[in-house]
Amino acid sequence: MSEEPLAAKERILRPPFYLVRALRLPFVSASLLPFLLGSLINKDVFHFSIFFLGLTSAISTHLSANLLNDYADSKSGVDWQERQFYGFFGGSKLIQQGIFSERFYLLLGGLFLAISAGCIFILTFLLKDLRVAGYYSIIIFLGIAYSHKPLQLAYRYLGELVIFLLFGPALVMGGYFLQTGIFPDIKSLLVSLPMGLLVSGILFANEIPDYPQDKKCGKNNLVSLLGPKRSYLIYLLINFAAFFTIALNINRGYFSRWAYLSFLFIPLVLRAGFILRETQEKIRLVESSKIAIATHIFVSILLIADLLL
Predict the structure, then answer these.
(1) Model-level pTM greater than 0.85?
(2) Domain spans of the chain, in order of start
(3) CA distance 180 to 168
(4) Contact at 8 Å (CB) between 247 and 190?
(5) Which of 35, 97, 171, 203 is the most exposed place for a label (fewest CB within 10 A)?
């Protein structure tokens, strides 16, 4: 039997797995948890229907961005530098392995973007507030400009800043705004800082193993400034800044002193930093990426629990 029918048979047998991989579903926690945190800041007000529509929009926007980012990185050639799939960095590689086409990613990304926009349209109508659509437009602009021409912010040393804004202030303050109608707000801004920094830490941990391929294609980020061997210092700085902002929130009374329990996860940050310092092997760097994601999840859940209890 030829290899082509076998490949076709595999595509038929395993479409759910490939779709999960294309959507990068394990990363959805990076949008779900910050939005939930922001929605719970004011415990006196919680509208479930508003929360549900907002969360659906946030997750759909995130999935759309994942798909369109893979599309853009395929077009730029950066994802073609290496075709092996590592699970946490380097893209889904499904285009490069011939499973899905660039057009599939573009259309599916557009579908999730349409779902997100539909939710925002309903929210704008229900809340009778055009600011909802206005703020959403800014988020979509940044999401597209992150990896797509002409701006390609992720290629111009601005990727980490965009991710910080989208997965920190945009989600936390957005969740708070939909529930309360208040924006801007110093409390929701300060609460958003650890979320944005921890997700930026995930991105940075994933950029270090991608450095050789990014450099070939002119994709410049903070790793380009120090090089992969010393970039663990920036990773540690980003994460320590996240814990500093948690302490700042506790000091201002936005979290209780129980939130100091999040400091128990600092050894995870140190472990990931040690791996990033000691090796450039991608197989081993998968562990540092897993640790970065776990740190974000554990800290986020603890802070959400602190707000609830």
Answers:
(1) yes
(2) 3-308
(3) 18
(4) no
(5) 97
